Amino acid sequence: MRHFPRLLAHPLTSGKSFFLFGPRGTGKTTWLRKNVPDALYINLLQSEFYNPLVAEPSQLRRLIPAEDFSRWVVIDEVQRIPQVLHEVHHLIESRGLRFILTGSSARTLRRRGVNLLAGRARTYQMHPLTAPELGRAFDLEDALRFGHLPARFSDPDPAQYLKDYVQTYLREEVLQEGLTRNIGHFSRFLETASLSQGQVLNISTVAREAQVARGVAERYFSILEDLLLAVRLPVFARSAKRQLIAQSKFYFFDVGVFRTLRPQGPLDSAGNIDGPALETLVLQELLATNHYSRFEYAPHFWRTRGGLEIDFVLYGPHGLVAIEVKRARQLHSKDTRALREFQKDYPGSKALIFYGGDSPLYFDGIQALPLDQALRNLGELL
Question: Residue-wise over 66-103: b if at least 16 C-beta within 10 A, else e?
Fold first, then answer.
């Protein structure tokens, strides 16, 4: 398997226990094997660990040699046995052990009533690979087709890898975790939800087209968010000076997963898929950069009832950033209208356009950058 240097380096520097969350396939275990190769690994996907611990979580104490007080202990997929966290808490307090706990998400554990070690362990997240992590291997067109899950770069057939990923994780694993009992309904929902990618979300419409009750569709969206498989962006409405829409926009976490889920046929135009795919790639890069660099931006979008829209708005301690994403190779003054109006409402905000051309452009305080250049340098831009 090809290995790429990851930007997530700081969790180990403190020497304290931490959670590492992220969807399966984002490279959590690979990163750990590389950075803490001498750790004691307990993988709850393996029956040799799962069976005794699910029956008696206190068995964890017997799996860790008494003399290994300075050694990292990794528990993979900890959400499979949330009760084991009580034992982890006890071992941190009584023996001073250091744990790395991986799983799908903190929300999944909290929904099960689990206390995340009462603040004794920090939380971090692993994202799909980013353009800076890929370096020379980053290719915009390739990324828009297959996304950035690490394993697909080593697979001779990335399209088939993504189909297998969708089948074995997004469907079967969700069923095995007991998050839904009807895999047929959930599978149909996933395809229907993909049609809402990058769109203002109408849950009633999704429910009707997926042939499920509205409450079921809402629960399915919550499952995707809990497992970090999707995100809903709220409208940026702080100190709003215009009438704004109220609904959120929806995105799956990786463009390759989105394209694999999205049903395609002769009536689907390239623009119907390429536009949401490009927005998805930019969003996943923004979320990863924001997290790894600890910028603490809250992601939003902006859309007025009059039809003005900005794809992404980041608000946080470092300021306010508005970003438009355009596939076109050429820009015109009309392409900057929403950003100009946004800057009128929020003087001092930074306005950026990522577009398909080759050269940086400037429009009265609005900077336009080629997509490839922008994604490789997000850390400096934000």
Answer: eeeeeebbbbbbbbbbbebbebbbebbeeeebbbbbbb
Q: Which residues are bridge partners to 23 per DSSP?
A: none
The secondary structure element, H or E, covering residue 299 is: strand 298-303
Q: What angle do CA 355, 374, 196 make, to 5 degrees?
A: 60
For 297, which DSSP code? P
Among 21, 36, 26, smallest CA distance to 6 is for 26
Q: What is the pLDDT of residues 103-140, one digit of tens each?
A: 887 777 776 656 677 666 788 999 999 999 999 999 99
pTM of the model: 0.93
**Could you tell me which of 108, 97, 95 has the C-alpha nearest to residue 22?**
108
Helix (H) or strand (E) holding 123: strand 122-125
Q: Which residues pair with 249 in a beta bridge?
A: 200, 233
Q: Which of 330, 235, 332, 3 is nearest to 137 (CA)?
A: 3
